[in-house]
Amino acid sequence: MSATTTVAPARRSRGFNLEKWGWIFMRASGVLLIVLIFGHLFVNLMVGEGIHALNFAFVAGKFASPFWQWWDVLMLWLALIHGTNGMRTIVNDYVNNDKVRTVLNWALGLSAALLIVLGTLVVFTFDPCAGVFEDGAMWETCQALGK
């Protein structure tokens, strides 16, 4: 006589599933990051004079354009959130202590939020003429801009 066992069907919880949306975000942001990063590298290293044109004036010129500001901010946001979500997954997989896991996840979230805020402020408030003195290389350019 053989014993038969019945397996109860898996329960599906209703509501927001963080792991599912984290998985979807990682795939979508990864594809978008590839486009953003390679576009960034192409424009910075291949267009115009290439790598020889990279200097402070090049960056100032890029950050003067709202298109490039948003391109770089989107790249920053996606990279930080993508990396933080990956680290969160590693912490959840390998840290067994609930309190340590909670502290590490909070530290990841807070550090990512701080870097996102600071990076966004740098991009949108970048002023190439801040701190330029009369004997500086940018003095004439800033005078021509009226700053």
Automatic annotation (TrEMBL):
One of its GO terms (cellular component) is membrane. Its main location: membrane. Keywords: Electron transport, Heme, Iron, Membrane, Metal-binding, Transmembrane, Transmembrane helix, Transport, Tricarboxylic acid cycle. The keyword Ribonucleoprotein does not apply. GO terms for biological process: tricarboxylic acid cycle. InterPro entries: SQR/QFR_C/D (IPR034804), Succ_DH_anchor (IPR014312), SuccDH_FuR_B_TM-su (IPR000701). Pathway: Carbohydrate metabolism; tricarboxylic acid cycle. The chain crosses the membrane at residues 21-47, 67-91, 103-126. One of its GO terms (molecular function) is heme binding. The keyword Isomerase does not apply. It is a multi-pass membrane protein. Pfam families: Sdh_cyt. Its cofactor is heme. It comes from the Bacteria. It is found in: Membrane. Membrane-anchoring subunit of succinate dehydrogenase (SDH). This is Succinate dehydrogenase hydrophobic membrane anchor subunit.
